[in-house]
Specification:
The complex is a heterodimer. By secondary structure, chain A is an all-alpha fold. Chain A has one domain. Chain A contains seven helices and no strands. In chain A, helix 4 packs across helix 5. The N and C termini of chain A lie far apart (68 Å). Chain B has 13 helices and 16 strands. Helix content of chain B is 24%, strand content 18%. In chain B, 60% of the residues are buried. The chains are: A mainly alpha, B alpha/beta. At the A-B interface, helix 5, helix 6 and helix 7 of A face helix 2, helix 6, strand 4, helix 9 and helix 10 of B.
């Protein structure tokens, strides 16, 4: 069951797509259920839910959904400075949902899988660069 | 109150880095040893998030190193409102080695003689070379990846496994050090790079701080503890110690603790050993005030909780043009530089600092770094930063100051009602000058290596990993809490073995030295056990 009302979820869906527009192989947040992810996060934290509901309500009062895109962006910029508590949480939870999605992590050049169990191959590196350090000799101070 | 367990020879409080090493040594020596740990066991296969896609979110929540943010039932809150650095720790079998990055440098010989050499703070009552055999034993038990021959140290015993790989990113920054002709070295890490001691080699997944699900990282729950338990040590988890009691002769008698059901229990012992970290140990001592010890147990010097040292960190980050594959490999790159470690009289500060070089931020952390805007340019800027940053953590030697302290908060308690600690800390002028110097030199290395843009955080708040000095070691009973064997001056069967007893902090991660000290103290107690066990 949703924590946010349908209207607030619709507004949030519009907002997250403005925060992270789709580009090439990277989808828009609304296409990968970012709103559902945020909704889940709010369901466990009453304080966070209140911040979101109040913030989205303020935006709704500006008839956000009916504004042209350029005015929606201007309004978000205004809220970024005037309601930092809400906006910082909005960004955090949007990014949390977006950058933990396998489609996105694959799209940015990773494997799209979590770090384990496969891990990665790592080059040993060029240890010959230590030659000059070795040649200089002891630098520890003998008391 | 229940006292349903028989008196033990040695009771250890805390199952982290020092408690694990010490308990193993006691069990190996045939002592009847029990450890009380306020946290629980974690199962590396199932309790760590690195096999889940949302692993990065766990850093913000249930696996955050800050107990005030994590707020798990097993944690105690800490009032840190009067400190610019937040104390960090983890409560579980393995303690903070569960979430540590496994940097394993030793303090250096000069760190033990700062008064003699530089006329600051105090000398330690023992030397690097007194600890050397214990460093070597501890390395063998923990398993250390590294490269022998570091010119910033006396020769060490052979490292157990080869050093952690540098990768493209390491080669890039090593080229900067090389051009400047400055010291750098692959630092010792308590991470298997190939199979060792029944544990596999690291697969370079990255986030060591979220717990190692394959047990390549040596947290003490997978290194010392299985061996200690096999030797007969007893480990009681979910045992939250409230206080230590004393008998009519002023000797430590027992620990009073809450079990997992909230029932108060009492465990008697011939010797009691605190291994609860530089905040937890003074908390227990101060909470153990009695008519005989009205200012807290073992506190006739008034120094319990005083002289709190962190390692203050400045963070300097360089952005590079090319993809450095910075998400591959243990996040702490395991390069350290000691170029500016020792005192140089031409500088405007005493003692020195080291650098730890850290790999690039993971995807979510990159997005949240404050450098990536929302909106049309989001992806473009993200792409220019992800995998392309190298960070220097400038770790400075924090000298002890009496006003930096742990006390008992008059109101705050944990969920069992045990009074919580309060931290008061101010960064000294010496440390500030030291870190500013480090920001300048780190910037120089990054520029030389080709960084396009460099930013810095002058003092990282969420960096109170190392908690030291709050029950300092010394020979003068009026100016220290314990002697060179961790034995409290006031109560001769009460010992402290964690970072609390550090006299000075050095400028490297303390765990290797904490554990070597624990083994050294264990050897002493075993040699004197006849005295204690007949009491």
């Amino acid at each position: 069951m949703r924590t946010l009302s349908k209207n607030n979820a619709d507004i949030l869906g519009e907002i997250v797509d403005l925060l992270i527009p789709a580009k090439e192989n990277l989808p828009s947040p609304s296409k990968i259920n970012v709103v559902d992810h945020i909704d889940d996060a709010l369901s466990n934290t009453p304080k966070l839910k209140r911040i979101f509901v109040e913030g989205l309500s303020d935006i709704n009062n500006e008839k956000f959904l009916s504004l042209p895109k350029i005015e929606q962006i201007a309004l978000l910029k205004k809220y970024e400075s005037s309601n930092e508590a809400f906006f910082s949480q909005l960004l955090r939870h949007t990014y949390n949902a977006y950058y933990t999605n396998p489609i996105v992590t694959a799209g940015i050049g990773m494997t799209g899988k979590p770090p384990q169990p496969m891990g990665y191959t790592l080059e040993k590196g060029n240890l010959t660069l230590l030659d000059k350090v070795i040649k200089k000799g002891q630098i520890w101070r003998n008391p | 109150m229940s006292a349903d367990k028989k008196k033990v020879d040695v009771l250890v409080i805390g199952a982290g880095a020092s408690g694990a090493a010490f308990t193993w040594k006691m069990a190996k020596s045939g002592m009847k040893v029990m450890c009380l740990e306020q946290g629980d066991w974690l199962n590396p296969s199932t309790d760590y998030s690195t096999s889940s896609t949302d692993w990065e979110i766990h850093r913000q929540t249930d696996f955050n190193p800050n107990p005030n943010i994590r707020s798990l039932d097993v944690d105690y809150p800490i009032n840190d409102t009067e400190s610019p650095i937040a104390p960090l720790m983890y409560n579980a079998v393995g303690g903070s080695t569960i979430h540590w990055s496994a940097h394993f440098p030793r303090l250096k010989p000069s760190d033990f003689r700062v008064k003699t050499l530089d006329n600051v703070a105090d000398d330690w009552p023992l030397s690097y070379f007194d600890l050397e055999p214990y460093f070597a034993l501890n390395d063998e038990m923990m398993g250390v990846a590294g490269l022998n021959g570091d010119t910033a140290y006396p020769p060490k015993s052979p490292r157990q496994t080869p050093p952690v790989g540098l990768g493209k990113l390491g080669d890039k920054i090593a080229s900067g050090f090389d051009k400047l002709d400055w010291h750098w070295w692959p630092s010792d890490s308590a991470i298997n790079t190939v199979e060792y001691d029944g544990r596999p080699g690291c697969n370079n997944c990255g986030p060591c701080d979220l717990g190692c699900s394959i047990k390549a990282k040596s947290s003490t729950d997978v290194s010392y503890w299985p061996k200690a338990l096999e030797l007969g040590a007893e480990l009681i988890t979910n045992a939250r110690v409230r206080e230590i009691t004393v008998d009519r002769f002023g000797k430590a008698k027992s620990a009073i603790y809450y079990d997992s059901n909230g029932e108060v229990r009492e465990q008697n012992a011939s010797i009691i050993v605190l291994a609860s970290n530089g905040v937890g140990t003074p908390r227990i001592l101060l909470n153990s005030a009695s008519s005989r010890f009205p200012d807290g147990l073992a506190n006739s010097s008034g120094l319990v909780g005083k002289n709190l040292m962190f390692h203050p960190y400045s963070i300097v980050t360089g952005l590079f043009e090319e993809d450095l594959e910075g998400h591959k490999g243990p996040t702490p790159l395991n390069i350290m530089s000691s170029e500016f470690y020792e005192t140089d009289p031409t500088r405007d500060f005493m003692r020195g600092y080291a650098y730890q070089v850290v790999r690039s931020l993971a995807p979510l952390a990159t997005a949240l770094s404050g450098h990536v805007p929302w909106g049309e340019n989001h992806h473009e800027v993200f792409k220019k930063r992800f995998n392309r940053t190298i960070t220097f953590a400038v770790i400075g030697e924090d000298l002890p100051e009496i006003h930096n302290k742990v006390t008992i908060d008059p109101e705050l308690t944990d969920s069992f009602g045990i009074p919580s600690p309060k931290i008061e800390y101010k960064l000294s002028e010496n440390s500030r000058k030291m870190l500013d110097h480090g920001i300048g030199t780190a910037t120089q290395v990054l520029k030389t290596a080709g960084a396009l843009e460099i930013t810095h955080d002058p003092l990282k708040r969420e960096a109170g990993w190392h908690l030291m000095g709050t029950a300092k070691m010394g020979t003068n009973e009026d100016k220290s809490v314990v002697n060179k064997y961790g034995q409290t001056h006031d109560v001769d069967n009460l010992f402290i073995i964690d970072g609390s007893i550090f006299v000075t902090a050095g400028a490297v991660n303390p765990t290797s030295t904490i554990q070597a000290l624990a083994l050294y103290i264990a050897d002493h107690i075993v040699s004197k056990s006849g005295k204690f066990l007949t009491q």
